[in-house]
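Supplementary Text 2. Reproducibility record for the structural model of the 655-residue chain.

All settings were left at their defaults, and a single model was retained for analysis rather than an ensemble. We include the record here because the model underlies the residue-level annotations in Supplementary Table 4.
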Amino acid sequence: MKKILTSTIVIVALLVAFTSCNNSGKSSKNGALSSNNAEKVYVAPGEHDSHYAFISGGYSGNLTVYGLPSGRMFKEIPVFSQFPTNGYGYSEESKPMLETSYGFIPWDDSHHPDISQTNGELDGRWIFINGNNTPRIARVGLRSFETEEIIEVPNSAGNHSSSFITENTEYVVAGTRFSVPVPQRDMPIKDYKGNFKGALTFISVDPEHGHMDIKFQVLMPGFNYDLSHPGRGKSHGWFFFTTYNTEEASTLLEVNASQNDKDFIAAINWKKIEEYVNNGGGTMMPANYAHNLLDEATHTTTSTMKKEVRVINPSEVPGAIYLLPTPKSPHGCDVDPSGEYIVGNGKLSANLTVHSFTKMLDAIENEKFAGEAYGIPILNFEDVLAGSVEQPGLGPLHTEFDGQGNAYTTFFISSEVVKWKLGTWEVIDRKPTYYSVGHLTIPGGNSRKPFGKYMFAMNKITKDRYLPVGPEMEHSAQLYDISGDKMELLLDFPTHGEPHYAAAIPAEIIKENTLKFYKLADNKHPRKATNDDETKVVREGKNVHVYMTMIRSHFSPDNIEGVKVGDKVFFHITNLEQDFDVPHGFAVIGANNAELLIAPGQTRTLTWEPKQVGVWPFYCTDFCSALHQEMQGYIRVSPANSNIPLKWSMGEDIE
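Retained model, structure tokens:
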């Protein structure tokens, strides 16, 4: 009997232990590190992520490309900053891309990418991103994943409420954060109020090639214009901008720009202004700004200085601009997929304010105005209010949508994402972020057609999320599954620079159209060499031009003599490979710029100014074959007064 009792106790104990383990396992699935969640973000070797995410690099000035759900970084695309990894901003072909009216500016602060759309849906052709510090808008081609165009924005400062596009990519907007004197002039800062202006710039986009041109600027009152989004669907033809500092303070803004109970969302009827401009309206104002454009055939960027811009004063187009009162220092400005709801996230407000586009039109039609600011009608708050989300969190910033009637808002102070229902304004779910979240992104979440499977939050503080690497950590992104009723945290992954916003898109829209290599037959670079017969070295005064080819695993020419101290040597190098993912690099000792990374079929130019007599090696920097180490050459530098003629070799000794 004792044996039976003992056996029974053992069996029961084992069952309890087994059940306890299973319960523990079930409990762990609620955490971000559970095996269930690990499976959701696992992308097996050789398999592809389902989505691309394009994340702004903030003070890096660049754009990074990640895969979702894995969180793997695939590429950093140089945009506004020099990039030694591939020679962007160092090669002669790419230097003009960083020209501005202030000269060559090799850095910027990139904030808000936005993907081109057709009929309000992401089409995956281009992605636009703003330079915040020196106001610029860049266009990156999603065929080549290269910066193809940058246009400078005059009359602007702090190009923050950018770069958001209309639903057929008619325009990309560039809204100023800091109002300034327009035109710029010497004046006392204390005279800010009434004298400074905020320029909202509408840049047209050519539907075939994507080429940009400033169509018009609206000179608004001297508020700070924070963020913006276009109308869509029923509100297509309008653009909405949040404002703060409607007090027009010029000092201690954390106090003096927080006095008013409400600031504004500025509603701009760009269709109406466009019609006015097309009929000759507006004033051409002298301006000085750069327009930099890459020619894919020549692989070369040209910088052109423009000299005037068309400006519009709101009083010129009555009925085109209205102000919607919005509590309190609103930051994000987001429009739902239907175009009916405009969400204004007041940073200092206890509630989330949602305006109705339909009510806005009714208030305009019935002239329900509460007053005016600099001649612009102010609508009554109650007349345009769709509803409020009551006390959802602390420090609301940004909202995106899943296409299922739900909205997701970030809360910076309470470090969380809150899911709420459009129309009923009820909070459905909330999940913490780690820590101090800024923007969030849902693929297509600012379009007519969101892809509501994933959402990721971009957090400002990392602290204990990763191994410590000194007092400054990379920022953290956190991926959530939003396909169910409740959000589920799946993954943390570090991000480069200081991400602000991101744009994400299903990979299937882009990946089959990406460029694999440049066809040599299409290479129109004026100093290309597409075979050994075209290689040569030419002296033009103190300039020496080397027409060079590279292919696994040698340079032609590989040895050069006759260069002198004081010369300027231009290496024009063509990669003869015609195979996907076989770039070659080029570096020479003593170069005071960077190496080059040259894509298959592409021509790039590196400038080298030898300062010392000697024999100096150059080599391939990108490991390209088993004989990569043998891919090298020498350039002999003689004294400035020497008479050694230019000679070069193609596999034989120089005699």
